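Appendix B. Raw example, untouched.
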Amino acid sequence: MQNLIPRLQRRTRREWQDWQNRRNIAYIGRQLAAHAKIQPGQRPVAFFNTTTRLSGISQNAAFSLLAGVAVQFAGTPVVHFACKAGLSRCVLASAQAFETGNPTAPPPCKACIATSEFLFSDAPTLWYTFQRDAALSAAIQTLGIEELSCFEYPLGPEIHPSSQPQTNHLPPATCHLPLGPLVLPSLRWTLRRHHLLDDEPTRFLFREYILSAYHLAREFTAFLDTVDPQALVIFNGVMYPEATARWLARQRGIRVVAHEVGHTPFSAFFTDGDPTAYPVQIPADFELTPEQDARLDEYLETRFQGKFSMAGIRFWPDMKGLDESFLQRAAQFHQIVPVFSNVIFDTSQIHANVVFDTMFAWLDAVLDIARRHPETLFVIRAHPDEQRVGKASRESVAEWAARSRVSDLPNVIFVPSNEFISSYELIQRSKFVMVYNSTIGMEAALMGAAVLSGGSARYTQIPTVFLPPTPAAYRQQADDFLSAEKIIVPTEFVRNARRYLYYSQYISELPFSDFMEPHVQPGFVVLKRLPWRQMTPEGSTTQRVAAEGILQGKPFVIPQ
């Protein structure tokens, strides 16, 4: 009974918030019908975001909706491409299925479709359903993981209507879909592992993803033939449904804008590039004003206490300082080097592995370095999000540490993900810092520490950390740092880190906090009921930047 009442209260609040969303989206539709002045002859903008949620409204689902509203209030029509049981297996449902031990479970299409029906009611929607292709199914039935990973298949010329101008279509002979490469990142994300097991549950899901991507490609090609959009707006661009749509659109020369959740609450990052890589074009003459410096310092003070969240998830429930036993052990060594890993669903993706093949190859290199330097205490820190309920890594740093017998080395301490010691205190006591591609690398740079990065991160776009080009160069740089009496950090690293962090969070991320508030379900939102003018490009800076970025190709940046 003690736990029943909070659960009932939470359920009641969730149902109330879901009703608010349905009501407010219907209100948005009425305001668009009454006040949006669609200009005649305008080619529409297509929106596709099937991987943002199953049911309910996630932040990214809300960002897509509001961007579409901005486009329509700017006078351009919008058309949604929407899944109506159009995938044999989808990314989010498959992740849940594997989490519950039922990897072949079908997705909850009924609830998802119901959400889509009211979420996309603001504009015309073309739905697609799934149809299994017998020839493709036979072609991949006996393939293993390695063969599936590089599998390609012709899309088929019969889907190109001869009545359409041939210049707007792919030559059939060149239209071979790279189905394996398009699907592989989604499979790694779903299974929370980089090295995939060549077992039947994994092969089954790989095959179903490929079959789904292929049929989606055929349906989306027909959609492009019918709609002829001037641009396509998608979520993420890495998950296989949106990745497939983007690949097809780019083959035709159609501009594709993708978005992801930003690093500040209720913010979104829009780009013509890959949003998971966070490409940010910082003007060479951009410098922080005193007011901007103060704003950034206030944010960092909060973050260094662990009081921050991303996409509604807080990673540090209770940050602890270094205890006396750790300090006594550290005192036995000449110097300390913290080693910060990342979560597998980030490091397994396409942008990270530019020096080492995987994060685990980097960790193996770090362990070799530790063996050669017994005078140094290496503190290997698993990411606090590695064992998040519902998103736990199946190929984890904790498993690597056990397999590699890290505890046998007297100069290595492994800190598991559920031990919330302060990473910032470690940085303050360090000779230098090793990271793969997690945000802590940028924070260490902001603190003036020398940072040796093993992977590409959003902040490595400009000089902020040391990023050797090869594994051999990485090992040599680590040896040089460990042997040096003092490490000289270029002064531009701290300056660039501050410039990058401020510009990426407060200028190149669009704030949508005026339009939404937290839902009882973490990561989801409740849309606010606002006067219609506040949803227009004239009434909102965020909506203006979104509309001008999508329609005119202007930078997605907030004017200062």
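End of appendix B.
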